[in-house]
Write a structure and sequence with these properties.
The protein is an alpha/beta fold. The protein has two domains: 1-186, no CATH class; 188-309, no CATH class. The chain has helices at 2-9, 25-31, 82-85, 101-116, 118-136, 153-158, 171-176, 193-204, 261-267, 278-308, and strands at 15-18, 21-24, 44-46, 61-65, 140-143, 163-168, 182-187, 209-213, 228-229, 232-236, 251-255.
Length: 309
Amino acid sequence: MIYKTYIEKSDLNKKILFNEKIKTLGVILKTHKDYFNKPPNFLLGINSSSKIIKGKKLNTFTGVLYLASHTMVAFKTLCPNAIRNGCHVDCLVSSGMLGMKTQQLAMISRTLYYLNFRKEFLDQLRLEITKGFNKYGDNFAVRLNGTSDINWKDIVNEFPHITFYDYSKLRNMVVKNTNKNHHYTFSGSMYSQYSRKELRLAIDAGLNVAIAFNTKESKKDTLKIPDKLFNKPLVSFDDTDVRFKDKAGSIGYLKRKGSNINQRLEANKEINNFFVTEANIKELERKWKKKNKNASISIQILSLTYMWC
């Protein structure tokens, strides 16, 4: 029944980079019919990546939900700002462990189950969240948008005793969040005028912000991560993934994953790139200084006007 539903309701011609080869969703489903004819084995992976597991040093055990991102299998995107932010190109869904065949099958299975059997999916999710809390207690945290950007406010609201945290490119969703147990970090991008404006608005609003730099800080990398951005201190967000323990208003950097030096050197020439590059950081700082200079002049004029009134 499950497999039949997927075949009937999915875009079987959708092309996917699967196991380092381009295949259609239809071929993937038919080749692994038995696998897709049952619910996912699990939805939440607890401390399931090299970065997530770093939370153990802060005594935090995180359950992360990894779905097939954007429109990888869905008709409607699961990451509403993916294109305007350029992250659909460099999504982590195809890097590291997530790029492995077994992980890709699992992400596709979870996503198709979420899209076609929503009630059953949410029931399983509730059960796994409850089991995680029963095992780890207050040290258990949940990150539902490992590779998506969905508003999970209703689920989060059901578990006020559990900490949830996520990265999001939807600034309005972050600002409008009313669940005190859900911590958001705005995920910045340098890809477009829109995304750069959203980044600046997020920083001006005092939101916690993460931004990825086009460097691994190897000897051949030419981009250096500055101590400050917009005259505010930059801290490392690579040390752990436990974002809800960051100070309010923190701006953190992430080094680029899954790339080689030639790719990074070429990307450094681009202004419109998801990552902070040598080209766009100079442009960003120039505009920021100009804006602040104009603001300073306006204040001086207002002060003079007041003196003469």
